[in-house]
Design a protein that fits this description.
Blueprint: E1 6-12, H1 18-32, E2 39-45, H2 57-65, H3 82-85, E3 88-91, H4 94-103, E4 111-114, H5 135-161
Parallel strand pairs: 1-2, 1-3, 3-4
Helix pairs in contact: 1-5, 2-5
The chain binds 4-nitrophenyl phosphate.
């Protein structure tokens, strides 16, 4: 790996359901592999309704059932400077991506894409918003996030060895 940390930002609408789930899952995967000083992780929302709030209790409970801790996370809103601070800006759905594309500065040379671009053997391209649905929506988010997190880590490690 290069000496510069790789910086990853997960983005959804509210930063209380999907992107904190991705944050917590990817963080644990990175820590388990001893890569936490080489890969920096954050999450945020395109909206401002939940700034300062912890993860939605249903998201936190579903994550905890699989051994992921989201309790340290607090919502924040994306800012233009995030494009200077992160190498990967990963959107949960197409609307998040469109909102980020509108903010993207011309000089940004990192990756701005859908998070599920890194998932394998999944027909879905977007992580569906579970906020107004039932409990099983949060488990589906976790399934997609675990899959894409594994692919993202492979991409980062592979990209690094190629440097
Ligand atoms: P998230 O879910 O974008 O996955 O954090 C949502 C949370 C809150 C709202 C929408 C989506 N909301 O409209 O308040």
């Amino acid at each position: 790996m290069s000496n510069q940390p790789v910086r990853v930002l997960f983005v959804c609408l509210g930063n209380i359901c999907r992107s904190p789930t991705a944050h917590g899952v990817f963080e644990q995967m990175v820590r388990e592999r001893g890569l936490h000083e080489r890969i920096e992780i954050d999450s945020c929302g395109t909206g401002d309704w939940h700034i300062g709030h912890p993860a939605d209790r249903r998201a936190a409970a579903a994550a905890a059932r699989r051994g992921y801790d989201l309790s340290h996370l607090r919502a924040r809103q994306v800012i233009p400077a995030d494009f200077d601070a992160f190498d990967y800006v990963l959107a949960m759905d197409a609307q998040n991506l469109a909102d980020l594309e509108a903010m993207r500065p011309a000089h940004f040379d990192g990756v701005l894409s859908l998070f599920l671009d890194f998932a394998q053997q999944v027909a879905e391209r977007e992580v569906p918003d579970p906020y107004y649905g039932g409990e099983d929506g949060f488990d589906h988010v976790l399934d997609l996030v675990e899959n894409a997190s594994a692919g993202l880590l492979r991409e980062i490690l592979g990209a690094d060895t190629a440097r």
